[in-house]
């Protein structure tokens, strides 16, 4: 099989496999090993980092969506007049799975001497179960405890901790009345009973959001209509497309906002960080790849007699250049394959490796208060792996151009003079 390969590739394979047996320059084997190891380490690091960032984005998005609807529908004229009819029209789209009305109040919660800002979401418990998973994240009570007229409330666990309340305690909700004048302003006050807490794993919601029955929330604000309608989809990734379809097929006064737009700044920031991290870690691969320059320069000097003999036997400068380009590319491919294998292996076992690392260093690497997560998630994606491998091989190939061009310009007579 090897005999059928082009002789340039045969020589390149021979030079690559014989590096450890180089007698004229034993440092070649060490430098070559460093080049391969550097490429492998850079590729593995980039795969692991991007996999962790993908996992972080996926995990946090999933936790966000336990509170954030896939699509939010509101009427530009104010409250939503007939949410049942609007939901029936939306359900005409096969992608829509369910819907629930909501009311949002901004106010302050007061307990003893402690006051905290809060966004109270008035919900219809039976319908809310079709659009979010919040019912399964409540402790100390259930979503069904939110009955109209009883003024019960469920707090985010972090908000409850800041207020120092527990199930059964009573607290006051202070809400600014709509249209209040600046000369005579008096907040509305309503006493609520805490029936439980929820934990969605996202500090922004756990520390600022509370749930109440929609009728109770409307009575506090004296609203005649719900604020809007939340929709859930069979496939959340289709939310932008479905929102456009609903906007085109339903009354023009309705406004549709999908979950990617509601958290646009957060996702844009994460994507920007991911791109910057990719560029920074690509520099590691670039440094390792350009170590091939020194390796191949030394190899060319070590093989000047071989090059001269090949030239006298009829090899063209282009063929000599091809030999060393193929050799450098082989080193790059070997390092890339090793890096991909190591990176994928680590990325798929981060949940096992990180507890061991934390135990060795004696501290937690991930603060739940800052990152919303207590363990490191990982989601290796083949698109990222292919892109990383392609960049690594491309940089390795570019690094071979200069020394290979130098090898092609060697004068056979000068090289053989001192042999």
What does this molecule look like?
The structure is a single chain. This protein is an alpha+beta fold and 419 residues long. Helices cover 53% and strands 17% of the residues. Strands 2-3-8-5-7-6 form a six-stranded mixed barrel. Strand 2 and strand 3 form a beta hairpin. Helix 2 runs antiparallel to helix 15, helix 10 packs parallel to helix 15 and helix 10 packs parallel to helix 16. The radius of gyration is 32 Å and the shape is elongated. It comes from Massilia aquatica. Belongs to the ABC-4 integral membrane protein family. LolC/E subfamily. It is found in: Cell membrane.
List keywords for this structure.
single chain; alpha+beta; membrane; six-stranded mixed β-barrel; 17 helices; 419 residues
Explain briefly what this protein structure is.
The protein is an alpha+beta fold. It contains 17 helices and 10 strands. β2 and β3 form a beta hairpin.
Record the SSE blueprint.
Layout: H1 7-17, H2 27-64, E1 71-75, H3 83-90, E2 96-111, E3 114-123, H4 125-128, E4 138-139, E5 152-156, H5 157-163, E6 170-175, E7 188-198, H6 203-206, E8 209-213, H7 214-221, E9 228-233, H8 239-249, E10 254-258, H9 259-262, H10 264-302, H11 304-312, H12 317-347, H13 350-361, H14 368-371, H15 382-399, H16 401-408, H17 412-416
Parallel strand pairs: 3-8, 5-7
Antiparallel strand pairs: 1-9, 1-10, 2-3, 2-6, 2-9, 4-7, 5-8, 6-7
Helix pairs in contact: 1-12, 2-10, 2-12, 2-15, 10-12, 10-15, 10-16, 12-15, 12-16
Domain ABC3 transporter permease C-terminal: 279-412
InterPro entries: ABC3_permease_C, Lipoprotein-release_system, LolCE_TM, MacB_PCD
Family: Belongs to the ABC-4 integral membrane protein family. LolC/E subfamily.
């Amino acid at each position: 099989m090897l005999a059928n390969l082009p002789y340039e590739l045969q020589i390149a394979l021979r030079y690559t496999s014989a590096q450890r047996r180089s007698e004229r320059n034993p440092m070649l084997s060490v430098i070559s090993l460093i080049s391969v190891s550097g490429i492998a380490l850079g590729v593995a690091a980039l795969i692991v980092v991007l996999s962790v960032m993908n996992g972080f984005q996926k995990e946090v998005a999933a936790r966000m969506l336990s509170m954030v609807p896939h699509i939010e529908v509101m009427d530009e004229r104010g409250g939503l007049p007939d949410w049942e009819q609007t939901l029936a029209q939306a359900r005409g789209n096969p992608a829509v799975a369910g819907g629930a009305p909501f009311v949002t109040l901004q106010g302050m919660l007061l307990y003893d001497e402690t006051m905290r800002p809060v966004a109270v979401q008035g919900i219809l418990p039976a319908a809310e179960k079709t659009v979010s998973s919040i019912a399964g994240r409540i402790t100390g009570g259930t979503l069904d405890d939110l009955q109209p007229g009883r003024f019960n409330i469920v707090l985010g666990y972090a908000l409850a901790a800041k207020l120092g309340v527990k199930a059964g305690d009573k607290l006051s909700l202070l809400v600014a009345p709509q249209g209040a004048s600046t000369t005579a302003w008096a907040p509305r006050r309503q006493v609520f009973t805490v029936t439980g807490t929820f934990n969605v794993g996202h500090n922004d919601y756990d520390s600022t959001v509370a749930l109440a029955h929609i009728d109770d929330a409307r009575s506090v604000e004296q609203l005649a209509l719900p604020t809007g309608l939340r929709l859930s989809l069979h496939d959340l990734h289709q939310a932008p497309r479905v929102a456009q379809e609903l906007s085109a097929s339903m009354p023009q006064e309705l406004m549709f906002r999908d979950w990617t737009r509601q958290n646009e700044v957060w996702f844009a920031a994460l994507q920007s960080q991911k791109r910057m991290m990719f560029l920074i870690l690509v520099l590691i691969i670039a440094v390792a790849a350009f170590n091939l320059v020194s390796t191949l320069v030394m190899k060319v000097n070590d093989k000047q007699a071989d090059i001269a003999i090949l030239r006298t036997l009829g090899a063209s400068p282009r063929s000599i250049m091809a030999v060393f380009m193929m050799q450098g590319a082989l080193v790059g491919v070997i390092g890339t394959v090793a890096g991909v294998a190591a990176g994928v292996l680590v990325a798929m076992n981060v949940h096992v490796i990180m507890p061991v690392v934390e135990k060795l260093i004696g501290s937690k690497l991930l603060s739940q208060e800052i990152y919303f997560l207590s363990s490191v998630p990982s989601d290796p994606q083949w698109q990222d792996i292919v892109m990383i491998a392609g960049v690594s091989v491309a940089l390795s190939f570019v690094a071979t151009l200069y020394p290979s061009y130098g090898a092609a310009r060697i004068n056979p007579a000068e090289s053989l003079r001192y042999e």
